[in-house]
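Schema walk-through. Below, the input block comes first and the output block second. Nothing else is stored per chain. Lengths vary across the set, and this one has 432 residues.
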Amino acid sequence: MTATPDTLARRLGTADAVVIGLGAMIGAGVFSAFAPAAAAAGSGLLIGLALAAGVAYCNAVASAQLAAQYPTSGGTYVYGRERLGPWWGFIAGWGFVIGKTASCAAMALTFAAYAVPGETWLQRLVAVAALAMLTAVNLRGITRTAGLARLLVAGSLIALLIVVAAILGSGGARLANLGPLDAVGGPYGVLQAAGLLFFAFAGYARIATLGEEVRDPAVTIPRAIPIALGIVVALYLLVGTVALLAAGPTVLAASPAPLASAVDAVGAAWAQPVVRAGAAVASLGALLALIAGIGRTALAMARTGDLPRWLASVHPRFQVPDHAELAVAAVVAALVLTTDLRGAIGFSSFGVLTYYAIANASAWTQDAAHRRWPRALNVAGLVGCIALVVTLPIPAVLAGLIVLAAGVVGRALLARPGRQAGADGARPRRLR
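--- output ---
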């Protein structure tokens, strides 16, 4: 299919889409999210992980079903607009952009922390350099993004499997460390752990936001999203269980690098460089996919006037949202140089769970002709997202509500007749 000058080219097959989804999910979250989850739920973090996986599955099938009907850039921003109305679409898109922009800064800083331990100023410069490099790759076209994602995913998988093998082969893993699956915070602690661990699953949305660049999207997207999610769920359950067997929940909760602490606890210190390299590579993979996903969502929002029209540019040769990706890189670079967002797991989860709650509500409205999974999954996904949001740490919820409210107020104040165009580039419409 040949792309027109203002659309993106369909160049991704199923394998490409799966790899991009894996790259987005197997990020630094798996190297860091087990610590706050263990603090919230103790050994009950495995129950939290299973709950997060269940909610992620409901969200994944909703996203896949919607993407098959609306194979364009923007993900739930587009689905919310089409199924529920412009305001719902805006809330989903804004929640995604702000949450994932914070995640970009967190991933860049996490990469630098593992790659160049030492002075903070040097880490910030290295983080900006990594951001610039990955932005340049994205700007060269989606096939370049997919090619680099393959390498980064392979490196991350190898590192995680070596960590698992080092722990199991050490003889130091103990069932006593796992203990009963009770939660230090009770059911609330388990739900909070699930909300925090959801941060590590959220990347499958990247496949849907790339819907305008997937070949045969009605077949490819519903196939690629469950495959990518299934691989990651199995991997996370394996890594989480092994880490608990090695170190126990108390050690994991107190560690800024829980997997490194796990290999230390069983006397496999030789694997420390592998953990460090794996975390660095995984951070780059997540950052690469984040830039691509935010860029496509910003492109969709700019097409309808919810973001400045300048961001709706598509490069005539490489057919990528060049202005949007450059703007994302500039904002993230500013955050990297001025703040430390490595603790942004809760804030990011708030934005993304809001995004998926709207995805589930949108999928519930689809008719039988476009439905691939039962409506009950959409209800379960919506309830699950809301439950996980309200049990996130209170500062994360408050920060998320404030930023979402600021976006809604800004849109209301800036709304003008004729500003809004349809998601397909149709004539302008009035904001509703």
